[in-house]
Amino acid sequence: MRExxxxxxxxxxxxxxxxxxxxxxxxxxxxxxxxxxVLEQISLDVADGExxxxxxxxxxxxxxxxxxxxxxxxxxxxxxxxxxxxxxGPGLERGIVFQDHRLLPWLTVEANVGLALTAxxxxxxxxxxxxxxxxxxxxxxxxxxxxxxxxxxxxxxxAAIARGLVSQPSLLLMDEPFGALDSLTRVYLQExxxxxxxxxxxxxxxxxxxxxxxxxxxDTVVVLEPDPGRIAARLSIQMxxxxxxxxxxxxxxxxxxxxxxxx
Length: 263
Known about the structure:
Helix content is about 35%, strand content about 25%. The chain is an alpha/beta fold.
């Protein structure tokens, strides 16, 4: 009986992750009557549970790439699939966290996080359980009844991460999630994000301009070069976690990526 119970618990807590595949993805915008290429022939495979960081200079198409993966823009060339199913629009299997936490000021933290479940036909008890679970995961369970103006910047961003996770997505997309925070808060939340990822093992794609952040967080760092945006390099970070930012290997990875970006 004990073995059966352990098996049930194992299945119930099994990580949910996704395989992401992009093949020959290109994107253009129309500007003043002419086509402006933004992304060109992006091909990328992201494995189940992998943590990928995309870095590049401003204007290289990082956020556009994330919008395509999120299904917020279906006007592109090439193939984009999640678990072998074409991405044709937004889906509950994808959570997203923006640089701005985007919490509604008239709702509590608990209510803001619960908004992500409005598309689900969930019983009230299950909805409450999921919200409580993710607030505990991000360390905000004691602030469930607080309003956004009562939170620090870091706490507000943790609430945004909770909102991105509450639907139990298989893929979490993050667009410069810590870019607006001070350096100490940013470092703390990077560590918190890794703790959450290790607990959930969701597949993560994060867009960032911070090379050190990318090396600290990711299994794989994808370097984009601009005009139009295309993959210049894909680097596997062969370092154990937690990573020491003063380790010569860490410094070498960072220097290599910076050289590629300057190029």
